[in-house]
Each structure stands twice: as structure tokens, then as C-alpha cells.
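Incident log, entry 3
Record: CAP domain-containing protein (296 residues)
Problem: checksum mismatch between cached and fresh output.
Input:
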Amino acid sequence: MLKRLAAAAAAVTIAVSTPAYAGQWVQDGVGWRWQLDDGSYLKGHCWVWIDGNHDGIAESYSFDYKTGYITYDVADQGVTVNENGALLHNGVVATDVIPGGSDYLPGMAGDDGKIFHLVFTPDESVHELNAKIQAEKEQKEAEKEQKEAEKERKKAEEAAWIESIDVDKVAYRIAEMVNEERVSKGYYELVINDELMENAAVRAEEGDELYAHRRPDGSNIETAVTVENRGVAENLASVPILMGETEEELAQLFMDAWLNSAGHRHNIFTSRGDEIGVGVYKSGNSLVGCQLFIQN
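Fresh output:
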């Protein structure tokens, strides 16, 4: 006995007059679907009687409610289907005549394998359901596009903010902060040398290529200093640029990094330094900074 697929007190056959259609089976990489005469696909039903070859005899098929593809895993419903997905009754394909000459009819099979409990949806409702599913799909796509657009907008804002950062301001502010720290600890101020600032800018850019206290060509850092001197010391650091950070805040990030390192801190507070130059290089969404200290 076939398990009834809907609650009903008794098996009844309901004759409904419906217009004739010219639907057809369509197969793609996922499976089989029933295409309506307007090109849309039958959706929103679990079981449907289909007259696939339009010979007046319909078979019953189980469909995925949302996608409209034939489903073959129906064992939990107490029924079986053949290799084409058609419902079997006592081992043979269940068949019946669809009332009104239509080629499909949403409904189920009774214990005799015939149409018994008709869950009829007028053709207009089928199209409304298809339209609803399409609208939901379009809404999800629109939401996805909106999220992508918002992501790109934020990315553009961050890029614009990074572009607006004046590395020369950051560099000069660092030099000022060094002197502020030195004075607060009882040391004299260092002379901020413009030429040495340019030398430090070169070393900051080189630091992006090779983050080490030697130049990319392997030579000593002293060769980057064009100001006459009796000794050179160098501090390097790299900090990220976060959205909204100002030149003042970025300069402080560099200072915090150097002051929290014993070796870098020693260079800042050395009593043998006379002049300072600071350079900052922008690399993507981060900055590379260099402090050069020279002794005259």
C-alpha cells in the first residue's frame, strides 16, 4: 500500500477543469525540471502529475519544492520511484488521466496509485510563486552587490586616507618629539638638519626594500649620509596606517616603538649625538620610518 502523502479522511478524486498547456521536460547539469509554456519552471510543489509526452496519460513525480528539480530520495515517504523518478504502484508506474486536458497537475497519488487528494494550484499561482522565487533571488543578488559596493567604498576611503597622509609632516614631527623627549630627560636638543632629513628619507625607502641596518646593495648605512660627520647611528621602524589616524598619531606610534626598545632608546638619548634627520616612506597601508643621528 502506498503511504498517503497528505492528510485526508478518505481517498477522493476531484475533477478540475484546467486549460491545456504545452510544457516539456528540460535537463541540465543538475537534473530534470518541468518547463512551463512561458519558459519558466514548475516550482512550489512536492508531487505533481506530469503528462510528459502529451499522450493523455500522466505519471506522478516528486519535486524539490524550491528548485523544481525531480527528487529520487522518497523512501522516507513510504513510496518508491523508478529510474526516471516516476512513482511506482505495486512495482509498476502509477498513471492517471489529468482532468481538463492539462499536461501537469499538482497533486498526489492514493492507495490505488491514482489521483486522490488534489492540491490544485491555479496556473496564476504557479507564476506568482516563480515570480516570488525570482524576486527573492534578485534581492539576495542585490544585497550581495550592495555589500560588495560598500566594501569597495570603504576600500576606496581607506586608500584616499592613506594617500592624504603627508610623510614629511610625520617625519618632522618625529624629529620634534625626539627633542621633546630629550629635553624632558635633561638632554640638549639635537639640530634638525634638512640634508640629513633627505638622507633619512632615502634610508626609509631602502628600508622598505631591505629592512636592515645596511643598504640594499650591501654597503654600510654611512654611505647614505651626505652630511659631514664623525659617526652615524640609525633607528628603523614600520607602523600600519589605520583609517582616521593623523600625522601626529602616526609620529607617536613610531616614537612609542623606538622608546620601548632599549637599543633604539639609547640612540635617541645618546649624549654623543649632535644632529638628527628623520625620513618616512609610505608602503601600501604602512609607513617605514628612519632616524639618523650624527656626531659632528
